[in-house]
Design goal:
Blueprint lengths: L1 H11 L3 E7 L2 E8 L4 E5 L7 H5 L2 H5 L4 E5 L18 H13 L5 E6 L1 H12 L4 E7 L10 H9 L7 H4 L8 H17 L2 H10 L7 H5 L5 E6 L5 H5 L8 E6 L4 H4 L3 H13 L10
Length: 283
């Protein structure tokens, strides 16, 4: 009897895989747990796997239905080339995923690129979000800078200055440079460089307008590392974006903040604070 219980627990904790097409592009996703929906959006050149590896997915799945998605151009989803296939199309994929799963509203949690896509979704489809956590991303004034990254990928030169730019200046040591190079090689081995180049060029479509920030109706939490070079983009939102809360993880940079236990606790607390109360007598 005990072994049957163990098998049941394992099966319950195994994500259920799925795929559908969004505007002709195959989109891979998985679901885990039950309850209100929490949609997780990964960062650039990553995949939904980061949420299971970090423990975020399994912790949230104790109380919610967690949905991990491989954004187009990433993971096991389709990888079209060309900027015209990205940008707002990445937001449309998320709306189409919610429609596919027959989910009216979801809490959305994104990190880095995922935060960018989530913030744009809050301006284009606010009625589909219960809340949004945007980690490692704010109100960028230089999305066009990703054109240099795209050009480097198209030329077979890797990610160019991207990984270096996300490293605090005081940490740019020879040892860190070696780790960055190893990370770059690992990312390139798992991705289609031309698809990533298309995504990078398409980011310009995800630019946020001041009027959209001022009119925001979605409860939003921005979590940023105190040493993250992108912190100034989060600071820029303060006093402009409505319904915004900002939390800084001291001592963390762009790469480490999303893996911090503090990030997970902030996400869980924020999602819980914007969830429907559980009726008396229900678990």
């Amino acid at each position: 009897m005990r072994w049957m219980l163990l098998v049941l627990l394992v099966l319950q904790s195994t994500p259920e895989e799925g795929q559908f097409e969004s505007a002709g592009v195959p989109i891979q996703y998985w679901t885990l747990g039950e309850g209100e929906a929490v949609l997780l959006i990964h960062g650039y050149a990553a995949s939904s796997e980061v949420w299971t590896m970090s423990g975020v997915a399994r912790r949230l799945a104790e109380d919610y239905e967690v949905i991990g998605v491989d954004c187009r151009g990433h993971g096991r989803s389709g990888k079209p080339h060309g900027a015209e296939n990205y940008g707002v199309a990445m937001v449309d994929d998320l709306v189409a995923l919610l429609d596919h799963l027959q989910i009216e509203q979801a809490h959305v949690v994104g990190y880095s690129m995922g935060g960018m896509v989530g913030l744009k979704m809050a301006t284009t489809d606010p009625d589909r979000l219960r809340s949004l956590v945007a980690g490692g991303y704010g109100w960028s004034q230089d999305l066009g800078g990703m054109v240099e990254v795209a050009a480097a990928l198209e030329a077979g030169e890797g990610f160019g200055p991207l990984l270096e730019d996300l490293t605090p200046e005081e940490e740019r040591t020879p040892e860190q440079a070696a780790r960055t190079q190893a990370m770059e090689q690992q990312l390139l081995s798992r991705n289609d460089p031309l698809a990533l180049a298309g995504a990078a060029r398409g980011f310009a479509q995800l630019e946020l307008r001041r009027a959209d920030l001022e009119a925001n109706t979605v409860p939003i939490l921005c979590v940023i590392g105190g040493e993250d070079p992108l912190k100034e983009d989060v600071d820029r939102m303060v006093g402009v974006m409505e319904n915004l809360r900002v939390e800084v993880i001291d001592g963390a940079d762009h790469m480490s903040a999303g893996r911090s236990p503090r990030f997970l606790s902030l996400v869980h607390e924020f999602v819980k604070s914007h969830s429907e109360p559980v009726a008396a007598g229900q678990d």
